[in-house]
């Protein structure tokens, strides 16, 4: 409930032309609009498009990937590898494919990777409940190795080896409510804006190898952190201090974290993931070993740059711009939806 002082009551403002009433109404209107934008049900990333009939957000990933990598990227984006679980979702998946490439065949979330022949969606919907039909001569389970299901632009299914690569669609149902992190343009509340650099940072406590860490940051709309100044080094030092080794659970090295630099092409040419030499990037306090076989970059708790095994699994730090990808709530009027960008 919003309580308005008596002096700004409706009766008072109707019977007077006091300037304070006009100001009060303008401020109240702005407050209510701001409140709606930040509390409305169904906020999600602005790089997804919402479909009212399917009651979900969708995003086509055109770069082909294996089924396992597709599942992982969708999950890291806060979504799910899409499956045609309803006629409305099936219709929207077909629409997305046909507007991009009529010859598309995409991976769905339907799989039998846990038990051979037992097909379910990632969310647990059994195959018998899927409102789609098989393509001609499908399924054939060639060589008894086809445990993942694809969908073509006609809405037909086929089985395929999960290690093959295909485009895919990530989706998030409206029922997955999320709070907008308006400071960082995301629904991930673990990102925190630091005003010293005007960047958002997240410390990942789940260890991954360098490639997986790179993927996780990218999927969240950012990248592995790059230190561009002594000030930013201090920011990361302060961030690490919030996660002392005693609070990290698991059997892995807790005294360091991957950030965004590595030895390019195995030549020991140490550069950031954006191609800059460390000195040009703005910070080069380094303890990288000459001729080391460890080609990926990490920082210790004293913020010295060091080398680490790329396949080793340790925590990592992501950074992102505060305005990307942005969060968008849903507004419906006469059955039509609009997406409003919230920053």
- What integer value in Å does the Rg equal? 25 Å
Structural class: alpha+beta
Unreliable residue runs: 1-41, 331-343
Largest sheet: 4 strands, antiparallel
How much of the residues is beta strand, in percent?
25-35%
Determine the number of helices (DSSP H or I, runs of at least 4 residues). Answer: 7
Along the chain, the helix and strand elements come as HHEEEHEHEEEEEEEHEHEEHEEEEEE
| The CATH fourth-level homologous superfamily of the largest domain | Mannose-Binding Protein A, subunit A
How many domains in all?
Answer: 2
Query: Could you report the average pLDDT, rounded to the nearest whole number?
Result: 84
CATH architecture of the largest domain: Roll
CATH class of the largest domain: Alpha Beta
Distance between the termini: 25 Å
**CATH third-tier fold name of the largest domain:** Mannose-Binding Protein A, Chain A
Indicate the overall shape. globular
Strand order of the largest sheet: 2-3-9-4
- Percent helix among the residues? 10-25%
The counted number of beta strands is: 20
Protein name: C-type lectin domain-containing protein
InterPro entries: C-type_lectin-like (IPR001304), C-type_lectin-like/link_sf (IPR016186), C-type_lectin/snaclec_domain (IPR050111), C-type_lectin_CS (IPR018378), CTDL_fold (IPR016187)
Pfam families: Lectin_C
Keywords: Disulfide bond
């Amino acid at each position: 409930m919003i309580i308005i002082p008596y002096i700004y009551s409706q009766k008072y403002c109707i019977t007077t032309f006091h300037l304070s009433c006009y100001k009060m109404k303008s401020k109240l209107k702005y407050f209510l609009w701001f409140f709606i934008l930040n509390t409305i049900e169904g906020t999600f990333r602005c790089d997804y498009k919402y479909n009212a009939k399917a009651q979900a957000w969708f995003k086509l990933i055109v770069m082909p990937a294996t089924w396992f990598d597709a599942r992982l990227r969708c999950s890291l984006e806060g979504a799910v590898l899409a499956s045609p679980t309803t006629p409305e979702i099936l219709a929207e998946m077909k629409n997305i494919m046909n507007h991009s490439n009529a010859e598309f065949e995409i991976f769905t979330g339907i799989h039998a990777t846990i038990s051979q022949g037992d097909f379910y969606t990632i969310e647990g919907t059994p195959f018998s409940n899927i409102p789609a039909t098989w393509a001609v001569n499908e399924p054939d389970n060639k060589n008894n190795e086809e445990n993942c299901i694809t969908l073509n632009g006609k809405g037909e299914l086929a089985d395929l080896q999960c290690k093959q690569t295909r485009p895919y669609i990530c989706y998030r149902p409206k029922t997955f409510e999320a709070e907008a992190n308006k400071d960082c343009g995301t629904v991930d509340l673990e990102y925190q804006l630091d005003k010293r650099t005007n960047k958002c940072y997240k410390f990942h406590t789940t260890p991954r190898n360098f490639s997986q860490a790179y993927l996780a940051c990218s999927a969240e709309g950012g990248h592995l952190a790059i230190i561009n100044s002594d000030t930013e080094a201090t920011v990361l030092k302060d961030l690490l201090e919030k996660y002392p080794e005693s609070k990290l659970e698991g059997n892995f090295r807790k005294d360091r974290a991957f950030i965004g630099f590595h030895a390019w092409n195995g030549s020991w040419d140490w550069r950031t993931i954006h191609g800059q030499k460390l000195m040009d990037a703005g910070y080069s306090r380094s303890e990288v070993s000459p001729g080391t076989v460890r080609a990926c970059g990490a920082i210790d708790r004293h913020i010295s740059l060091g080398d680490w095994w790329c396949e080793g699994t340790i925590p990592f730090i992501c950074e992102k711009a505060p305005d990307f990808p942005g969060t968008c709530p849903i507004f419906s009027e006469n059955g039509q939806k609009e997406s409003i960008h919230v920053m």
